[in-house]
Write a sequence for this structure.
């Protein structure tokens, strides 16, 4: 409960300590820059707010539970107030990381990784977009030997799958080379002078195919003859008396 009760001692975690150091160093070297901090957890956001209070750094919250009017007011104050250097984004990447224009800031700190890398890029896109006049920076905070490593691996695996799927639709790689076309007509052999020569490799297969076709046709002809003979024998049979002769 240290995030709600200021009387309780506050112990910083590894991530909040790094975030604090990044913010302090940035404002010392670039006092006109503004930062946005993304986190998935309200508790972490409130703890970060207490850390900023202790350093006398102005900030605004953007909670997911805030009503639309409060969100708009905090965003406007963050842009217009020169003393507000940090927008503490405690709404998750999907809530505050999509559809907003936050070009008043030019630095983004992401405390919690998301399994979908595209969602993180959407969050970074709040500042890296048309209207941004400053150089932008993205910080991704990860702790070694933690769940962050697994999330990072999951992101990389998904990116590999996406890249592999997109490569199939690369128009440059879809074009056939001269060797590809020549290979349709036979075996390709390269001469000592680097010239490509196409050797016929299908003649024997074609001859065998013709012989098979002839055998098939002979068998078909014989079968057809047998069917005709049998049909002729059936047609010469006398009609059944019960059907052809009327009853007395």
């Amino acid at each position: 409960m240290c995030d709600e009760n200021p009387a309780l001692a506050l112990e910083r975690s590894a991530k909040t300590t790094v975030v604090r150091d990044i913010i302090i160093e940035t404002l010392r070297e670039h006092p006109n820059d503004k930062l946005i901090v993304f986190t998935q957890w309200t508790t972490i956001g409130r703890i970060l707010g207490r850390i900023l209070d202790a350093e006398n750094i102005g900030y605004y919250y953007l909670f997911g539970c805030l009503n639309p009017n409060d969100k708009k007011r905090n965003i406007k104050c963050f842009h217009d107030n020169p003393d507000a250097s940090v927008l503490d984004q405690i709404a998750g990447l999907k809530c505050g990381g999509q559809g907003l224009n936050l070009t008043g800031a030019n630095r983004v700190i992401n405390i919690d990784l998301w399994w979908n890398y595209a969602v993180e890029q959407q969050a970074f896109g709040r500042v890296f977009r048309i209207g941004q006049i400053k150089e932008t920076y993205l910080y991704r905070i990860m702790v070694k030997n933690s769940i962050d490593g697994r999330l990072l691996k999951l992101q990389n695996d998904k990116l590999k799958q996406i890249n592999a799927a997109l490569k199939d639709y690369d128009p440059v790689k879809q074009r056939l080379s001269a060797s590809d076309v020549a290979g349709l007509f036979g075996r390709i052999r390269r001469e000592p002078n680097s010239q490509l020569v196409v050797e016929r490799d299908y003649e024997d297969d074609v001859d065998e195919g013709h012989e098979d076709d002839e055998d098939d046709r002979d068998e078909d002809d014989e079968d057809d003859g047998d069917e005709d003979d049998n049909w002729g024998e059936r047609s010469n049979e006398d009609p059944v008396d019960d059907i052809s002769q009327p009853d007395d």
Observations:
- Residues 13 and 44 are 10 Å apart (CA to CA).
- The first helix runs from residue 14 to 29.
- Strands lie at 35-38, 58-61, 84-89, 107-110, 137-140, 187-190, 196-199.
